[in-house]
Amino acid sequence: MRLESTKVAMIWLPLSVIGYAWVCQERVHVAAICVMLFLAGFFSIWIYTSTLAYVVDANVGRSSTAVAMNSSFRGLFAFVATEIAVPLQDSIGDGGLYTLWAAVMIVAEGMVLLVLYKGRKWREIDVEREKQKMGAM
To answer: What is the DSSP letter of 3?
Structure first.
């Protein structure tokens, strides 16, 4: 249910990032840049809050560890993205950089959809495996 609510935002997030990219690239009026930036932020937060709630719900008994790992990886990837963004931006421009970033988002959204459609089956297999481990002890 938590991941189901992200589907609408998954459509609009890459589009708003691409829109932001090209209004920056083409030096459109600052109002258009602000609108696109607002939309990108809104849809990003929508997806993030829903997926974080899913991470908490899916990791019963170890949710704080899951949230900590989420934050660690998010911080690590933010650091790496920050380090490579300026050289990429200098070489391919704003439009190219953010279009590339939107493509990465689409791949990540595909992974979320994969969990949405196959997650139940994976959890059932994991629960069964845990039961077998406990029975063997």
So the answer is: T
Which residues are CB-contacts of 54 (< 8 A; sequence separation ≥ 6)? 2, 3, 115
pTM of the full structure:
0.77
Of residues 54, 58, 55, the one with CA closest to residue 124: 58
Strand, helix or coil for residue 127: helix
Closest by CA to 47, choosing from 78, 16, 25, 72, is: 16
CA nearest to 119, candidates 2, 19, 11 = 2
Residue with tokens 């300026």, as numbered in its chain? 86
What DSSP line would sit under 55-116, residue for residue? HHHHSTT-HHHHHHHHHHHHHHHHHHHHHHHHHHHHHHHHHHHHHHHHHHHHHHHHHHHHHH
Given pLDDT bands bounded at 50, 70 and 90, which one contains residue 123? confident
What are the residue boundaries of the structural domains of the chain, listed by start?
A: 4-136
